[in-house]
Design goal:
CATH superfamily of chain A: P-loop containing nucleotide triphosphate hydrolases
CATH architecture of chain A: 3-Layer(aba) Sandwich
Number of helices of chain B: 5
Number of strands of chain B: 13
CATH class of chain A: Alpha Beta
Order of helices and strands of chain A: EHEEEEHEHEHHE
Structural class of chain A: alpha/beta
Structural class of chain B: alpha/beta
Largest sheet of chain A: 8 strands, mixed
Radius of gyration of chain B: 17 Å
InterPro entries (chain A): P-loop_NTPase (IPR027417)
Shape of chain B: globular
Strand order of the largest sheet of chain A: 3-2-4-1-5-6-7-8
Shape of chain A: globular
Number of strands of chain A: 8
Strand content of chain A: 15-25%
CATH topology of chain A: Rossmann fold
Largest sheet of chain B: 7 strands, antiparallel
Organism (chain A): Acidianus hospitalis
Order of helices and strands of chain B: EHEEHEEEHEEEEEEHEH
Strand order of the largest sheet of chain B: 10-9-13-7-8-12-11
Largest interface: A-B, 27 and 34 residues
Oligomer: heterodimer
Number of helices of chain A: 5
Number of domains of chain A: 1
Number of domains of chain B: 2
Protein name (chain A): CobQ/CobB/MinD/ParA nucleotide binding domain-containing protein
Chain lengths: 157, 234
Amino acid sequence: MIIKIHGVKGGSGKTTISKYLFYYFRKKERKRVSLHSIEEIVKCDNPEIIILDNVNLTIKNGNIEWKLFVTDPQSLELSLNYVKKDDDFIIVNKVSPFPCEQNEIIKKVYKFRSVLVPFNGKLFYEEYDELAEPTLNRLAENLLGLRKDRLIVPFQQ
Amino acid sequence: MELIDTKKLLEGYKLKDGDSVIIDSDSLSIIKYFHGLKKINLIADDNFIFEALEIAGFLRERQVEISVNNFPPSYEPKLVRHKKLEFPITRSKGKGLTWKVSGVDFLPGDFVLGKDFPVSDERTGILGYLVNKKAVVIFDKSNGDYIEGKIVGKLDGDEEYLVRPNKWLTDLVAFKATFKKGKAIVDKKLLFCRPLGSVFLPLNRRDVYNVLLKLKIRSSGYPVECYDYKDSWS
């Protein structure tokens, strides 16, 4: 499975989300995962999952299965102009803790298949090992075909 | 399903899943009658909002699905901490059912809850200690679509939001409130859609983020059913 994570705004959290998914698949699901980003490449033999963090890479005998478009609340309005039909999920990262602002974001994205990732102190400090962001865990379950959610919001039961 | 008041509970009525209970007494000891339930509706009497929020918060965090005044039912996701936190805070006996935290070691310290902080609620006490705030709001009365709380302690003047974390200190609710004449006023749905207790810490926007960063936690807002994409939220 190849997952491409992309977006138009720098600093919106593409690498954070790529790394989180990398840890999730490797640690929780015990998958063989490769991660390719501009900063680093983590390769493994015969990977079951390849994560492309905002890089274009042609992979022999491999098609991109999931395209995840990442943005943040500040650039959401603008970013929606760049979302394409083949983007599977819109991920709004660093969503405000306040309900009125969360409501505004839901209004803008609920017609798309989307994920609202709340501002999370653990992600801010790049601590991924505890997999402490339920929305991204839920996203990963969707990518593995274990769930079929349309809207993933921060409050998850 | 039946509508039950406190008198009926005291007379020995045994609650069933899905019953509706009117919280019309100042006794928190009625919590024992809710033991073993999976789903319950609470109807908060206007004068017993403190008790309704404490009972609802306590049950939600024990994974009981709660609806208050017909707002969408939910339980609190059990997001426990992997590593314990430590604070040099001295505890004192708390009044509320939700005033305790889990996954925290209290080391002997000079910051005494109930003395250096206006109430013995551990949740807001820890947050107050982290951002040096020493006032709280305790909700107690309802008036139409709004709920009023008393401000206890002195505000700095720049507070706009009210915050209360879950018992594991891994998530919180934060919303805007109106502060005037020693009171805080909020829309009912902000308290009843995800009740976590009756005591809140007034903070400015920057300090809400400071709490999220210092505790390395998140603020997940409300169940999606509680958002109304057409109405505005405060």
